[in-house]
């Protein structure tokens, strides 16, 4: 296990409000990590920083064995470096079919001329079929993504994430709006992905986190309150006060 | 190979029946006009009508380009007519220069002493630029004697302008209404610049006599009109095919993604700005080509053609025709521009209400405005959207 992502001493202020306060987190490869914390703790903002959506006021975000700084890199360059993201509110391309959504995410060259001359290949089609199978949308490939249910959109977005074949998956509340059976399936997908990659999952549902069975980081007011196994952090006095005890 | 694998081209046409339909109808239309045209036989269509139809095809081509940049990529450019005009100017310079050269050489041929090259050049310059009080050929016209060079400029000038403008605008992530305003500013600035007498393009006189094609002066206009009509039809057919191919595959998927959720496309690793730049520049080049075919049929180009309102009309055509479908753009451009020349050309009879007479030359714009509002409110998918109802997708 080597460190893949190192966030250290990061702070972000929105209009005078400190959303992230001297945050430090390290993610190894491979690793499965759950991030929990009350609403507004800064969980999503943490992902925004890593993916280049928000730039921090101070701190460092270091990536990979070459210790590259992600700060100052564009969103698309960070994505190409191997960081994929699923958003809290499912964002798929509703006007396009499930197949088109997956094809767009598929790991291929991203330049305009590469894409223009891209020819649909049998491997690509096979990979899409395989992914669709995994996310339970095998029969829905020709459907418009906008016609999917909320849970299916979540899965499609997870599928797009896997299609990118990233080294680090940032998954924001993947189980929201899912039935218990669907949640279980989602846990399996994430655990399988984490066998070879780094996966960071934000989730509120404690049952879901327990099933992930991994190291947990508790965020509160923009910094790490506790870190360790789920049992360890749930016994922490402060964690009970700010999060569990509500 | 054991599996019967379709070639990419056949697959493309098989998967896009609307492209086949369009090309078939365009072919039939071209055939029909040819048979009816004055220059060919039946002479049921006057030469000026053939020219109007040929020009309409050029407008359809720029509308298709506009649909790609706006309807598919979501960039509401209100400046694409500037590229159209620049294409017209580039070819117009050669047309005017070469024809003037012919006239000058002819008229000096009778002189007792054969004229020097310098005298010929001076005479050409005086002929062309006398109207703006100059007798020198501006540096801009250095290559005006070369058809090849000016054809190159038809592509390069709009292409480079779009590339530089787009690079500056997209790089600073100017989007939405701000980008539209910026493109309006571009076309306004260009038009104002060209209106000046000392810019080397004859100010508000523009370039004229473009219907006379050097080297083909022995041919009647009725024949030339038909040739240009065919060229315009071919350009529209090829342009349509090219853009239909461009938007059909993964590239089309990415640009529609950019239209619907730009930042999501970024997080998938695509450099959105490059895609916008490619689409903006390609459509600008096609617009320039359309202009280069249009103005020899119109006979004259002047800076008013590039006025900001022209590009706004273009967006209105595409909206009325139905954006996000290429045939919609063609329908919109054809219907609205033909209706416009019918109403403003005195084709529509005045309506006498007793207390007031509706003169369509003045009231056409009101009608167009009402039509635009009606389409926006009641048929947001435009005229082309009516076809979609016939061929519903699951
Ligand atoms: N772009 C922004 N501008 C202003 N404030 C913001 C912005 N983004 C986040 N915030 C604020 O920063 C704080 C942290 O937000 P964040 O979305 O990271 O919380 P979270 O832990 O993901 O919460 P939740 O569990 O509700 O998703 C919140 O108070 C939020 O209002
Ligand atoms: Mg959040």
UniProtKB/TrEMBL annotation, chain B:
It holds the Pfam family BPD_transp_2. GO terms for cellular component: plasma membrane. Its main location: membrane. GO terms for molecular function: branched-chain amino acid transmembrane transporter activity. InterPro entries: ABC_transp_permease, ABC_transptr_urea_perm_UrtC, LivM-like. The chain crosses the membrane at residues 21-46, 52-73, 80-97, 147-170, 177-195, 224-247, 274-294, 300-319, 326-343, 363-383. The keyword Transmembrane applies. It is a multi-pass membrane protein. It comes from the Bacteria. Keywords: Cell membrane, Membrane, Transmembrane, Transmembrane helix. It is found in: Cell membrane. PANTHER family: HIGH-AFFINITY BRANCHED-CHAIN AMINO ACID TRANSPORT SYSTEM PERMEASE, SLR1201 PROTEIN. This is Urea ABC transporter permease subunit UrtC.
């Amino acid at each position: 296990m080597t460190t893949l992502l190192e966030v250290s001493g990061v702070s972000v202020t929105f209009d005078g409000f400190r959303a992230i306060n001297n945050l430090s987190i390290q993610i190894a490869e491979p690793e499965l990590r759950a991030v929990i914390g009350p609403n507004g703790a800064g969980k999503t903002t943490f992902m925004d920083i890593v993916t280049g959506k928000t730039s921090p006021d101070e701190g460092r975000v270091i990536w990979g064995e070459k210790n590259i700084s992600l700060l100052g890199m564009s969103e698309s360059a960070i994505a190409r470096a191997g960081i994929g993201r699923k958003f809290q509110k499912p964002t798929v391309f509703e006007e396009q079919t499930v197949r088109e959504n997956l094809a767009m995410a598929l790991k291929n060259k991203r330049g305009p001329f590469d894409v223009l001359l891209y020819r649909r290949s049998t491997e690509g089609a096979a990979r899409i079929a395989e992914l669709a199978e995994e996310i339970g949308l095998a029969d829905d490939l020709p459907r418009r993504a906008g016609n999917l249910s909320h849970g299916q959109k979540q899965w499609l977005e997870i599928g797009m994430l896997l299609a990118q074949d990233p080294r680090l998956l940032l998954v924001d509340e993947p189980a929201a709006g899912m039935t218990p059976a669907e949640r279980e399936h989602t846990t399996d997908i994430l655990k399988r992905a984490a066998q070879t990659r780094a996966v960071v999952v934000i989730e509120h549902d404690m049952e879901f986190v327990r099933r992930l069975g991994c190291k947990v980081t508790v965020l509160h007011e923009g910094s790490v309150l506790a870190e360790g196994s789920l049992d360890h952090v749930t016994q922490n006095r402060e964690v009970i006060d700010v999060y569990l005890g509500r | 190979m054991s599996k019967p694998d379709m070639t990419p081209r056949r697959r493309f046409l098989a998967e896009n029946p609307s492209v086949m339909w369009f090309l078939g109808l365009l072919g039939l239309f071209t055939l029909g006009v040819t048979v009816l045209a004055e220059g060919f036989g039946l002479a049921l269509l006057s030469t000026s009508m053939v020219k109007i139809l040929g020009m309409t095809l050029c407008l359809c081509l720029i509308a298709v380009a506009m649909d790609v940049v706006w309807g598919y990529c979501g960039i509401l450019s209100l400046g694409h007519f500037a590229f159209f005009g620049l294409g017209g100017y580039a070819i117009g310079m050669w047309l005017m220069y070469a024809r003037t050269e012919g006239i000058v050489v002819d008229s000096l041929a009778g002189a007792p002493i054969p004229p020097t090259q310098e005298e010929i050049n001076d005479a050409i310059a005086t002929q062309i630029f006398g109207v703006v009080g100059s007798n020198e050929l501006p540096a801009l016209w250095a290559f005006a004697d070369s058809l090849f060079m000016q054809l190159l400029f038809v592509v390069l000038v709009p292409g480079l302008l779009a590339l530089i403008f787009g690079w500056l605008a997209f790089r600073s992530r100017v989007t939405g209404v701000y980008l539209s305003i910026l493109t309006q500013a571009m076309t306004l600035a260009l038009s104002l610049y060209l209106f000046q007498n000392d810019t080397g393009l004859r100010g508000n006189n523009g370039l004229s006599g473009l219907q006379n094609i050097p080297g083909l002066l022995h041919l009647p206009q009725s024949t030339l009109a038909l040739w240009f009509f065919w060229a315009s039809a071919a350009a529209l057919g090829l342009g349509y095919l090219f853009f239909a191919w461009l938007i059909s595959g993964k590239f089309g998927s990415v640009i529609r993604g950019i239209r619907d959720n730009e930042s999501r496309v970024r997080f998938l690793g695509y450099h959105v700005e490059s895609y916008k730049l490619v689409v903006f520049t390609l459509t600008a080049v096609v617009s320039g080509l359309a202009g280069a075919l249009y103005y020899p049929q119109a006979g004259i180009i002047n800076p008013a053609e590039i006025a900001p309102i022209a590009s706004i009309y273009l967006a209105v055509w595409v909206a009325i025709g139905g954006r996000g479908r290429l045939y919609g753009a063609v329908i919109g451009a054809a219907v609205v521009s033909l209706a416009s020349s019918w109403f403003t050309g005195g084709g529509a009879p005045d309506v006498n209400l007793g207390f007031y007479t509706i003169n369509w030359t003045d009231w056409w714009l009101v009608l167009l405005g009402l039509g635009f509002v009606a389409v926006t409110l009641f048929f947001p998918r435009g005229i082309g959207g009516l076809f979609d109802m016939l061929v519903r997708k699951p």
